[in-house]
Amino acid sequence: MKIRIDELKELSERDLREKLEAEKIALTQLRISHAITPLDNPCSIKHKRKEIARIYTELRARELNKA
């Protein structure tokens, strides 16, 4: 499921950090599963990485706005 940028902007910083940790864990699980038995959709790893990057981008934008 793709994360929309609008959804990220509505979340608090704490929620974003929690979501980031959850996405990192999910990515790790996908990589482990893919190493054991190939995934039906290996592009899901790529999508998870992009979702994590979107969260990092939103966190960085908020950090710059504070300064």
Report what the structure shows.
- With 67 residues, the protein is mainly alpha-helical.
- The protein has one domain (5-66): Helix Hairpins (Orthogonal Bundle).
- It is built from three helices and no strands.
- The protein has helices at residues 5-10, 13-36, 43-66.
- The protein is elongated and about 45 Å long.
- The mean pLDDT is 93.
Quick structural gist:
This protein is an all-alpha fold. The chain has three helices and no strands.
Write out key terms for the chains shown.
81% helix, 67 residues, Helix Hairpins, single chain
Write the layout of secondary structure elements.
Layout: H1 5-10, H2 13-36, H3 43-66
Mean pLDDT: 93
Helix fraction bin: over 70%
**How would the global form be characterised?**
elongated
**Topology pattern, helix = H, strand = E:** HHH
Q: What count of domains describes the coordinates?
A: 1
Number of helices: 3
